[in-house]
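Memo to structure team: turn this sequence into structure tokens by end of day. - J.P.
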Amino acid sequence: MAATEPEPPTPTRRPTTVRSRAKDHSPWNWLLFVPIVVPLIPVLFNGDSPRIFGFPRFYWLQLAYILLGVATTTLVYQMTKKRGGR
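Reply from structure team:
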């Protein structure tokens, strides 16, 4: 059995991965750092009060960080998705 070598790209046929990666640079993507950085700020959760429904600040802030991540991801997706006609 002889091993076949892959065809080199010709000038008329370009790899599609290079083209699609170049279009992924949107300033909206920087917002995805918000749900990563905000939970790393200890001043926000270093305390017991205020309590919501009896839960200390640390626990309800964990749920708030999840909502922040979902909202941020949804916003970035909506702003960067490719439209049908464009």
